[in-house]
């Protein structure tokens, strides 16, 4: 009854706001005026398909001016605030703030210039190849005190490219280079005419010439002519040089002469520095380092330009990117100076960051397993530790985490840690000199880490780790991380005297050594692809103890082996993570993920170490379930034994499928609706976790949930509030696991997190 009354109250409030907004939005208009509520475009002919109309309509709508008052949930909320505040001459106070900050004045129909908008629409149609388009426009005032601009368009046929031809006006080198690259033209026969593609073709030719040393060439020196006289709504595209309008220097190929690098440049202008102090010649570079802060090889590794090279735009951008990616310089600028005889001197001005920095951080954190807490850290950074642009970081962290959602109380977790990272902006490989030409410099990384974590009255885990590896990016979409050396020692102590501690931690505690390589590959197609569909892939290979285990014929039952007096883990772990982002509109994206975890313990191990196992449930996982409490398989401690004791459940195998519709609803406010399914399993049978092993019926053991969430996107931070509701619990004996009849709201899991789950 209480819920019904609350729903009625919410409906009443919403109805009143909606009614009030509809009345007040037009009530205060000047006499004889109407509110402009937008435009509508109608196509009167059938020359184009429904799909093309669907694409063309929003394109045309963007050019019509002015834009109507903005809406939120169908309500012109800003206009409502503006009218509520009323006229006021005050500059301070609630009413001026409400009117000028939150509100916006009404967009009046009298401000709509039909003649200008008709020209804009017609011009936009011609830019897309509809050269015979016609239109009529009128103001539709059929709405009470509201009006729309109605455009009735007859597109006519869309012209398509018959063929594209480059006209050679001479036999110069510049003509030869354009002709040689014309097989890459963007003006493809059969494609519809598009002014944006025509502009892109000019830029393509300009880039080709910039790569061949034509420093002074510009896109506007290219003339493109469309000939529609061939009939059948087709055109020939002729590309040629504007011979008479091109300056002489644009026909010349320029070469690089001297290259100057100012390693400690202060931002006091871009004038040429003639200082001779501490100037030295490094291979084909002249370095000015008055503070003697950098070793010469830093610049030799980063630079791509060399003295005597032809000018290349790609080499210019590549050199700038590599200098920036050293991580040592706050600002990197360059300029070219024409010294005559078709030669250029190049100047690079590098402004370093402060060499040493101390940083304190404190704040709220969220973990993937639904834990919420506080964390603080202090770090000391040296951006040029040994003169080779090495970055040395010492960091100490501490924090407390807890989770209060769900039916089962979970213990607080206190952690402290210390970490040292040393990274080199190059490949450091014994006896081998590895060079790259990517715009992203590779990193060789040494890590040392200690971490202590304790769960209140239950257990404490100490871990010591050391690793050495490489991180490199061939391009903006791809990244590799390879750590051939990984050493971790884990020691776990159980605390408290609870009688069922042995049950809880028998399958979770690992004491020993993890020793083996890891490799991770990441591909991210959405990078640089705004408003386009794309996908993300991350694949991890993690191995431990396999060479040693094979050499010693290790067997956890018959022939267990030790290293330095403790057991060592032996396993192979694979974790592919695939995500697809379908761009539905400028305001909506459908994000989907499938994650597979495969852990195969062998030889010296019965199962994966607990810090390497998988879990299910949490704010970036199955959001309708408490963290780490799903599975393995059909096992559930609370359902089977009505236990109130907290227990984390982990597994060697995992499958998870997620899909989420994300939509912008108002500026920084976004809505998410999601559905998820997944579970974890053990590789081998375990009597403690009955039904937890992986079988051919794994697909019948998937847990599932649905939910909704609100996200606040502040650009530098995205705060996510999700409410997950379980709909399929594989451990339930009846209804094939479906559990849709709930007596309380305790099954709803509230997730507070930072960032998207995937």
How do you describe this structure in short?
This protein is of the alpha+beta class and 758 residues long.
Description:
The chain has 758 residues and is α+β, with helices and mostly antiparallel strands. The protein has 4 domains: 2-154, no CATH class; 160-251, membrane protein fhac (Ubiquitin-like (UB roll)), CATH 3.10.20; 259-352, membrane protein fhac (Ubiquitin-like (UB roll)), CATH 3.10.20.310; 356-754, Beta Barrel (Porin), CATH 2.40.160. The two termini are 39 Å apart. The model is unreliable at 1-23, 269-274 and 497-503 (pLDDT under 50).
Mean pLDDT: 84
Number of strands: 30
Q: Stretches where pLDDT falls below 50 for ≥5 residues?
A: 1-23, 269-274, 497-503
What CATH calls the topology of the largest domain is: Porin
Level-1 CATH class name of the largest domain: Mainly Beta
Largest sheet: 17 strands, antiparallel
Which structural class do the helices and strands define? alpha+beta
CATH architecture of the largest domain: Beta Barrel
Oligomer: single chain
Kindly state the percentage of residues in helix.
10-25%
Rg over alpha carbons: 33 Å
- The tally of structural domains comes to 4
Distance between the termini: 39 Å
- What's the number of helices? 12
Name the CATH homologous superfamily of the largest domain. membrane protein fhac: a member of the omp85/tpsb transporter family
């Amino acid at each position: 009854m209480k819920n019904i009354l609350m729903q009625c109250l919410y409906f009443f409030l919403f109805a009143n706001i909606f009614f009030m907004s509809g009345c007040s939005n037009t009530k205060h208009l000047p006499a004889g005026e109407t509110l402009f509520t937008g435009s509508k475009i109608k196509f009167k002919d059938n020359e184009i398909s429904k799909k093309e109309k669907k694409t063309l309509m929003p394109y045309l709508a963007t050019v019509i001016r002015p834009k109507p008052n903005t809406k939120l949930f169908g309500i012109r909320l800003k206009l409502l605030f503006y009218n509520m505040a009323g006229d006021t001459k005050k500059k301070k106070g609630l009413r001026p703030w409400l009117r000028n900050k939150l509100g916006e004045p009404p967009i009046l129909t009298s401000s709509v210039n039909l003649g200008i908008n008709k020209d804009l629409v017609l011009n936009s149609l011609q830019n897309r190849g509809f050269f015979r388009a016609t239109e009529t426009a009128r103001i539709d005032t059929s709405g009470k005190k509201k009006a729309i601009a109605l455009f009735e368009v007859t597109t006519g046929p869309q012209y398509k490219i018959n063929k594209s031809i480059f006209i050679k006006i001479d036999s110069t080198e510049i003509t030869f280079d354009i002709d040689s690259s014309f097989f890459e033209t963007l003006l493809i026969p059969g494609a519809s005419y598009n002014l944006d593609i025509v502009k892109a073709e000019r830029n393509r030719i300009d880039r080709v010439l910039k790569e061949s040393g034509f420093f002074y060439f510009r896109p506007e020196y290219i003339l493109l002519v469309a000939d529609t006289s061939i009939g059948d709504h087709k055109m020939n595209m002729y590309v040629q040089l504007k011979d008479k309008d091109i300056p002489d220097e644009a026909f010349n190929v320029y070469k690089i002469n001297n290259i100057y690098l100012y390693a400690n440049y202060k931002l006091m202008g871009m004038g040429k520095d003639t200082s001779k102090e501490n100037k030295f010649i490094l291979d084909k570079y002249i370095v000015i380092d008055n503070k003697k802060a950098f070793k010469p090889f830093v610049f030799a590794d980063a630079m791509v330009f060399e003295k005597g090279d032809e000018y290349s735009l790609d080499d210019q951008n590549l050199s700038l990117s590599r200098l920036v990616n050293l991580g040592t310089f706050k600002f990197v600028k360059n300029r070219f100076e024409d010294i005559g005889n078709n030669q250029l001197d190049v100047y690079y001005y590098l402004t370093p960051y402060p060499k040493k920095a101390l940083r304190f951080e404190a704040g709220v954190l969220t973990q993937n397993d639904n834990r919420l807490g506080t964390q603080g850290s202090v770090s000391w950074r040296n951006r040029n530790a040994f003169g080779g642009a090495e970055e040395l970081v010492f960091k100490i962290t501490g924090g407390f985490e807890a989770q209060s959602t769900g039916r089962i109380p979970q213990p607080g977790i206190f952690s402290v840690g210390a970490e040292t990272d040393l990274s080199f902006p190059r490949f450091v490989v014994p006896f081998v000199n590895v060079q790259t030409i990517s715009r992203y410099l590779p990193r060789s990384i040494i890590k040392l880490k200690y971490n202590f974590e304790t769960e209140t009255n239950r257990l404490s885990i100490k871990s010591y780790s050391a690793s050495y590896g490489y991180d490199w990016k061939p391009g903006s979409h791809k990244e590799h991380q390879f750590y051939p050396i990984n050493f971790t020692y884990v020691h776990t102590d159980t605390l408290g005297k609870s009688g069922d501690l042995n049950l809880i931690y028998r399958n979770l505690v690992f004491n020993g050594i993890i020793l083996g390589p890891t490799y991770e590959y990441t591909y991210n197609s959405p990078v640089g692809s705004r408003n386009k569909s794309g996908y993300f892939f991350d694949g991890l290979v993690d191995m431990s103890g396999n060479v040693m285990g094979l050499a010693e014929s290790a067997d956890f039952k018959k022939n267990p082996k030790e290293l330095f007096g403790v057991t060592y883990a032996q396993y192979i772990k694979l974790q592919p993570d695939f995500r697809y982002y379908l761009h539905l509109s400028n305001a909506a994206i459908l994000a989907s993920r499938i994650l597979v975890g495969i852990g195969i313990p062998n030889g010296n191990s019965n199962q994966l170490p607990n810090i390497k196992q998988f879990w299910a449930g949490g704010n970036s996982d199955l959001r309708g379930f408490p963290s780490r409490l799903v599975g393995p398989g059909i096992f559930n401690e609370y359902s089977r034994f009505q236990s109130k004791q907290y227990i984390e459940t982990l597994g060697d195998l995992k499958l998870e499928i997620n899909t989420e519709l994300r939509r912008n609803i108002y500026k920084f406010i976004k809505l998410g609706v999601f559905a998820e399914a997944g579970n974890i399993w053990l590789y081998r049978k375990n009597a403690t976790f009955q039904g937890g092993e992986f079988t051919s019926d794994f697909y019948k053991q998937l847990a599932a949930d649905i939910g909704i969430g609100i996200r606040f996107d502040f650009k530098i931070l995205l705060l996510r509030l999700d409410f997950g509701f379980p709909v399929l619990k594989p451990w339930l004996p009846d209804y094939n696991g479906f559990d849709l009849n709930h007596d309380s709201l305790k099954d709803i899991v509230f997730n507070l997190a930072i960032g998207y789950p995937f």
